[in-house]
Structure prediction request, 185 residues.
Amino acid sequence: MPQLAPAVDASSRERHSDAVPVTSDLRHSFERMKAAYRREPNPSYEQRMDRLQKLLDLVRHEQGRIAKAISEDFSCRFFHETETAEIYTLVAGIKYARTHLKGWMKPRSRHVALSFQPGRAKVHPQPLGVVGVISPWNYPVSLALGPLAAALAAGNRVMIKPSELTPKTSDLMKELLGRVFDPDL
Prediction:
């Protein structure tokens, strides 16, 4: 699953003596994800489509719980704002990625200098490995899961650091993503 970093601000680090274990846990998760990437550096088109479909199904199925958690974090954000600004844009982004994924994965020809003729050059898109997403508080789901969708489409593994200002939404995302994705993803 895309790994969620605990939402810990500077003042809470001073209050809690567990800041070092949190850093150690994050490093361990990152190393585990890097090892998983080395075992499977280029997920297939089918694997990427499956991951995007799982994310799409999750968002569609759990939109009520997502809206409720956001409303609790914001002390009553209207469902329609969440539906429009978070859910709709996120679903549209995931659908867009699914529609264009095959084209994004295709190697692209490049011109070569006359001195290298009759040679040919192509660019083969490849995943970076493990990427990080730091999401802000104002649209905590779409600004975390939108980049997640893009990273999964690119074949990457993802660590997400949600805002410490939206703890209920962060906890819900951790639960939901943990339900559908492997911890090494």
In short: Confidence is low (pLDDT under 50) at residues 8-19. DSSP finds seven helices and five strands in the chain. The longest helix spans residues 79-105. The helical segments are 10-15, 19-39, 45-61, 63-73, 79-105, 142-153, 167-180.
